[in-house]
Amino acid sequence: MSAFKVLIVEDSPTMRQLIVFALKRIRGLQISEANDGVDGLKKLSAERFDLIFTDINMPIMDGLKLVSLVRNDPGYKDVPIVIITTEGANEDRERALALGANEYITKPIQTTKIMDAARRLLPLTV
């Protein structure tokens, strides 16, 4: 069984735990965590990931900057990115999608939305 690697970039440990909890319900996922955009970039440079979940509002480097940098990296330009954020305004959603995010989920986090996004964006056989 092939395993897909998922990176969660979120500054709130509680939110990261909720996302991990949702994703662990899907078989075949290896989950890594980063606490901001810079930490996320470090993890992306160290190993290959198949899917990225990121918050927008984080210290040091926000999620939109992370999306922009990932999309400009030839090695990651096609890796799906899901934004999970409290920013629910249409202009925020449109900006994130224009930068290259594949999906935009607003908080509060719902387990089914996280799982559905992962299932849509990864070639899972289940």
TrEMBL record:
<dbReference type="Pfam" id="PF00072">
    <property type="entry name" value="Response_reg"/>
</dbReference>
<keyword id="KW-0597">Phosphoprotein</keyword>
<dbReference type="GO" id="GO:0000160">
    <property type="term" value="P:phosphorelay signal transduction system"/>
</dbReference>
<dbReference type="InterPro" id="IPR001789">
    <property type="entry name" value="Sig_transdc_resp-reg_receiver"/>
</dbReference>
<feature type="modified residue" description="4-aspartylphosphate">
    <location>
        <position position="55"/>
    </location>
</feature>
<feature type="domain" description="Response regulatory">
    <location>
        <begin position="5"/>
        <end position="122"/>
    </location>
</feature>
<protein>
    <submittedName>
        <fullName>Response regulator</fullName>
    </submittedName>
</protein>
<dbReference type="InterPro" id="IPR011006">
    <property type="entry name" value="CheY-like_superfamily"/>
</dbReference>
<dbReference type="InterPro" id="IPR050595">
    <property type="entry name" value="Bact_response_regulator"/>
</dbReference>
